[in-house]
Amino acid sequence: MPRTTPPRPEDIASVLPELAPLARQAVRLHPRAGRPSVHDGSVGGPLLWPADEEWPTCAEEHHNWEPPVSLDDVRQRRALLEAAWLRPREPGEDLLEPDRRAYLDKLQAGHQAHAGPNALLPVAQLYLRDVPGLAGPEGADLLQVLWCPLDHHNGLPAARVVWRNAASVGERLTDPPEPADVEHYGNYVPEPCVLHPEAVTEYPAPHELPEELADRLHDWGKAQEEDSEAGPGGAYYQYELSVSPGWKVGGWGPWSFCDPWPMHCETCDAQYKPLLTIGSAEWDGGSGSWIPLEDREEPSGPTGVRSRANPPMVTIGRGYNMQIYICPTSFDHPHLEVMQ
């Protein structure tokens, strides 16, 4: 089923024409639970990977507050909780029976970190044919993103960006290595999702605007709140009219808890541009107008352990976003990862 973002509550470029030249296209990916194949765009799905190409690993230092767990621990934990949430229960009955609670505790205990490289985990696979405006190196028609599912020095998983030509993949790898260690809570283990790409128009977050313009937007939002007796007031523009939440390609950065800073390629000093945003949720209490039309009806029965706003079950920090920036000069230059 396609996903359709409703029109913005206000045409903000008509209200403040200074914003019109700053409009950018973003492509919301709308990942939803599914069974993607290597020939599909996906989040958390299998990658079209050559059998004779080494699978990437991470040998960097990790910075985790809790002991790691195994990938199988995360999968079993989610399956156990899914079954528990879906089973009929009497009022006041515990979610888990004592034996299942004990098993869950065992799965959550973690283990001592393994020595040696940690295999990377597939995060996203994007066929350029499906994502308007996405372009890579000459001849590439496929973007693959993997990461080490542990916290690194910046508090994020360490990502690897791979561009390739799908037709050049001969015999494919059918049993890729899996990481021995993943983050304690499984926050960096995406559930398999199919994609429903949709192009939308974005404007910069207030943090990236001149102070005078940002102040006018704040005052305008407050006036809208007074007129309607509802809405986020001064944050109206930020949450509902500027940057779309969730997984997306391109667009503007979702700056929120910190201010932007100069981000330049360490090789050539060019200013980085956004490639991929990995969101902890596709909407929240302050951004309800971004909920796709097809997702507006509340389910009539139990929904299991997955949040409707976060089908991949990926959480960045305390519910933030991870954004991958790339150099506009060369795809061979290092990328940048930022938490916003």
Descriptors for this entry?
about 350 residues, alpha+beta, 2 domains, 6-stranded antiparallel β-sheet, 5 helices, 14 strands, about 15% helix, globular, DUF1963 domain-containing protein
Structure characterization notes:
The structure is a single chain. By secondary structure, the protein is of the alpha+beta class. Helix 2 (71-86) runs antiparallel to helix 3. The mean pLDDT is 94. It folds into 2 domains: 1-29 and 198-340, no CATH class; 32-70 and 110-195, no CATH class. It has helices spanning 12-15, 71-86, 98-108, 211-228, 236-242; strands at 24-28, 32-33, 42-43, 57-58, 118-119, 121-127, 142-148, 158-164, 193-194, 198-202, 248-250, 273-279, 321-326, 336-339. The strands form 3 sheets. It has a 6-stranded antiparallel β-sheet, with no helix packed on it. This is DUF1963 domain-containing protein. It comes from Kitasatospora purpeofusca.
